[in-house]
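Appendix B. Raw example, untouched.
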Amino acid sequence: MIRELQLRAGDVEIVPLEHAVFIDDRPETPQKENLFNESPRGEYHLDFVLGLATTRNSNLARDPSLRPSYWSTVSIGDADIEGRVLEVASFEYPDLSASVSRLIQKLVPGNLRNTIDQYEAAHFFSLRDARLTLDALPPGFVSPEPGEQKIRINAATQDCRNRSGEGTNLWFSKRTSRGVVEPRGTPNQWDLGEKWRAHTIGNGAIEIEYQLKRGDEATRESIDVEVAGRGQKRVSQTVRFSAKTLRIEVAPERQRVAPGETTRIFVRLFKVDEKGQKEPVQNRTLTLKVTGLVNGGLRPRDKITTDRNGVGILAYVAGDRDRKVHIEASYTPQGYETTFKGEADLTPGIYTVTVDLEFKSPYVPDGRVAIADLQMHVVFDEVRIETGSQNDPWSPSGSIDASEGRGTFRRFVLQDSWTWGDPNNRERSKFVKAKEPPASFAATLTMAEDIEATEQIVRTGRPDTMRPPDKALFVFATDMGRSAPWYGNSEGGGPLSEFRLEFEAPWKDLLAGKPVTVKLPYKGEWSEDKGMWTVNFIPAP
């Protein structure tokens, strides 16, 4: 049978599933071990059934004297997913070899290659050397905006002879991390759980629809599609397209506004691609959420609509009791799961504050243990200047919120000291517990209690409603803890005292976010100490 098939195969390779030689011509049915149940390899499979037909005489009675004939049937089938049959033939003849030969001749009148080519020219379920082309149709991108959330991809198939047609199998996932995928324009589609299987229509193509459902990043989205190739060989292609996003910017003209002053806040809505290119989105209504507004004014307050430039404008009048005013604008496109937000703060003032101390003290022969030369530098990275609030009756004039300061000694030189005995006996003081002062230490910056305002609160039960004062009193103090340096001489010593400074600064200037510098002479432990305190309020950029 295989030999006969090979004679008509042309350039088609014949791969036997199993090879067996039967020595005896036995009339009985083959035993179970002679039945082949394996899955066929290759692109097509041939099923051959051989049996003995009982011979009967003219009276239709069985006649053992007559030679039985061989009855056989054969079919060629597509080994791919659809499992279609190309040809079927049957034949009965007394001679086994002639029966097989004539059966194969009947099955394949000419060349097996021609039979297969004719079949493949009309059946496209599995393509020989399949090719797949994926093209994103205009506009070629998706975005969260209504009307732009969907895109269609044309999936076109061809075989090695540039032929295509109805019925080619395509597979693709039903969803991505940000959206859903569905076949369109084909009546034959199957939901396989996590995947779709769909047939191409008459032109060998289908359309695949992708809908963006969630996400707030601009990126390139991708969809993978597989096509069935002859011999269950699958070919995969990926289509990529831009997934734009939306961005809301809330931008005050000035972030620090003094009480009574007015400023504008610009609310901008953009469509942004993965390269950062912006496109304004007009005529969209954004929802506003405002906190920290006490007696200031904001118009509009609840909603704002963007103009043709994608901009909405808010007007803010600062109240003298407003603390940090936080403005949040949000927008959820229709049919989209993600809400886009933008926010900004209007603050009384955010500063970096530096405190520097420099002083020197001469040698005095009275037995004191002193510092000859000291330079100290302290930085407070984030200091918020806040106006008073009716929610905080104990700070009617305002308050500050300062991070812990980080201090260092840039110079720390000990002075000689006089010891008992010879009046000219000078001894160099030294550090006792360590060879040098600590590398760093902590510090605090607070506002001093306003005694007059506090007395009024106690007296009347409510804070003063007056305008902020011209000046506010601040308190600076070091906090070296266990790291405080000890120094002395042979007759004794002790730890370094903490440094403390009370100073006034122009409060209205700080509320308005202006830079402020305060300089004060240093008043040390000894009258001979001469130096200077320098406090800088540096507005944050």
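End of appendix B.
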